[in-house]
Amino acid sequence: MISITADFECGNAKNVQQIAIDRFRLEVVGDKASYSYYFCFDVRNDGPPTVLTVEVWPDPDFGPEGFVVTLPTTVWIGSGDRFKPLDRSRVRNFEEPLLVRLNLRENETVRVTNAWPAPYSGTCEFLRNLADVRGDRCELFTIGTSVQGRDIPGIRTGASGKPGILCGAGQHAVEFTGTWGMRGIADFITSLLPDAVALREQVQVEVIPVVNPDGNVMARNAFNAEGFDMYRAFGEDPDSEHPEAHESRLLWNKLVEEQPALWMNIHAFVGWRNNGEYPYDGWYEVVDPVFRDPGRARLYQALCDTMRLETDGMSTHGRANVHRENTMCYQMARRFGIPSVFYELNAATAGPYGSAKRAIHVFKRAVHTLLNSF
User: Fold this and answer.
1) Largest CA distance in the chain
2) Is there a contact between 212 and 170 (Cβ–Cβ < 8 Å)?
3) Domain span at residue 84?
């Protein structure tokens, strides 16, 4: 007997149907037209070894745009904390639907996804462990609780009174490479590596890997539990005093109160259609003139030069995307002169380890530029 379920943390599938002895059909759960691409479901085989094909369709409530443009991509399969890329001969995506062919052993359960999940509960445990094991050099903190009452924790380290760096990810909940990347940064900056030890004497770093915990648990593509896009924080009113989403307001209040020297935000996307070259990473910029202070404008230009010349961010389109006026990055720059580093990791080319390495590299290069620009 075959069963398919998605009723677990980060699970995403609906309208599961068996349409033949060896074939199932399901749909993803999307947020809107351009965010309807993420799937994550379990396939359980309670019988003898079998071969099964699963049709994965976009969310019919929003149309296929987001799902189609992510293809081709990597389909990950695994169990527990271990995933591997499914052989591409077993994935067909020339047209809708995406067809995934699985060889299932007797009494086997496999998880199938196009983005290696970083569950909120696991990230909370990871941060607690860091604070327990490395309590002499870091501490837990929280910016508050989500709409549904989940804590939004982070890890703090470094020297109080030194330039502050606030790092976050997970505004778009299922962009898990961002969360994996932030976990990597948290691990690095609290470690005993000589570079990390030296940096802790020069800066104070706060890392919040999941700023949208409800969305993470619910497997929302882009929104929080209220239905707001935390990246486009000010919605249709860029001049509003506060962002729309509850969690965005918590984050915004912290930024306004503490005025860090740098805000680093990691997002993600999947697939490589219309992209340039491996690993298909990208980055966003605020287009000047926004910064009122010439020194801040110069620092921001140096950070943009860093992203362009010293990271893989060019490998998607060979240029930066642009933050619109309704984004938090834009409004932080316009209202308070806070520069940002906004980097996109491609979930089709990175899991936890690749994401961590690439994020740590971006972090180190950005901090180097910051410290040498004062």
Assistant:
1) 69
2) yes
3) 2-113
**Boundary residue ending a domain (113, 145, 168):** 113
- Paired with 35 in beta bridges are 32
- Shared domain for 228 and 366, answered yes or no, is yes
Pair (244, 275) in one structural domain = yes
**CA dist., res. 351 & res. 178, Å (int):** 10
Segment 2-56, tens digit of pLDDT: 999 999 999 999 999 999 999 999 999 999 878 899 999 999 999 999 999 999 9
CA angle (166, 169, 172) in 5-degree steps: 145
What whole-number distance in Å separates Cα of residue 150 and Cα of residue 244? Answer: 18
Task: Please check whether residues 215 and 249 belong to one and the same domain.
Answer: yes
Q: Do residues 173 and 215 make contact, with C-beta atoms less than 8 angstroms apart?
A: yes
Q: Contact, 65 vs 87, CB < 8 A?
A: no
pLDDT digits (tens, 9 = 90+) for 87-140: 988 998 766 789 999 999 999 999 999 999 999 999 999 999 999 999 999 999
Answer with the one of 92, 113, 134 that is the final residue of a domain: 113
Count: domains in the chain = 2
Give the C-alpha separation, 242 to 195, whole Å: 37
